[in-house]
Amino acid sequence: MKKTRTVRKTAARPGQKVPLLSGGNPQIAKGYGDDPVQAYIQAIPDWKREVTAWVDQVVSKTLPKVRKAVKYNSPLYGARHGTDWFMSLHCFTRYVKVAFFRGADLDPVPPGKSRQKYVRYLDIHEDDARDEAQLAAWVRQASNLPGEKL
Description:
By secondary structure, this protein is of the alpha+beta class.
């Protein structure tokens, strides 16, 4: 019987080139904590790096004890113990998508609709104005709602 070799993604190291998936989304290994999220952000090309760094900064400033992870090639943010996550980020060709897993329960509801009952999105394009106060309010509200187990 022939043995097969499993190829695993590895965490990005300083100076290491990270493969980019469609839309410029970095292929970062699953990991927990701030380090994998920062590796994800540093691997993003062009203006999307600044946008994701800004979102990460707003979340971290709003919730100093926020839990972070990278799973499914996307940063996740959680406020409770365990596997509950309230928000994620993902890069696409023309925008960065912020997903609020219970976004339908936020006030005001984020503008991007979803096929899923409760998920709502905030799509941030290159030249969009950024409303830090609104993003922080959504983060604060979302962190107090039940999260998704991912």
